[in-house]
Amino acid sequence: MFVFPLSFQVCKEDKLSRILERFLPFNSHASSYTFKFETRVLDMNKTLEENDIPDERELFLDLGLEDNFYIPALMIYFNDDLTEM
Predict the structure, then answer these.
(1) pLDDT band at 6; cut points 50, 70, 90
(2) What is the maximal distance between C-alpha atoms in the chain?
(3) Which UniProt keywords are given for this protein, alphabetically ordered (predicted)?
């Protein structure tokens, strides 16, 4: 297994398909991956919140923590579909 830690900020309004577009420069086969969060397959036509991934930064700030105390990790799984570059 290869771990590719990468993080970048996204707008709340961005659908996962837009996030995928931004990921393509790092991996030209990104469209051949399934995006998951906590074992759930994500709907690429929805935002993070619509996929039940809440923005909890305000909660962290209210608790005296940094707003980046926890960053949700999206896992991507390669689909062996033999797409071409």
Answers:
(1) confident
(2) 48
(3) Heme, Iron, Metal-binding
Give how far Cα 2 sits from Cα of 5, 30, 50, 52, Å. 10, 14, 29, 27
Asked if residue 26 is part of any domain, the answer here is yes
Alpha carbon distance 15, 50 (integer Å): 9
- Does residue 4 surpass a pLDDT of 80? no
* Residue 5 belongs to a domain: no
Rounded-to-integer distance, Cα 81 and Cα 70, Å = 33
Give the CA angle between residues 77, 78, 84 to the nearest 5°. 150
At 24, is the secondary structure helix, strand, or coil? coil
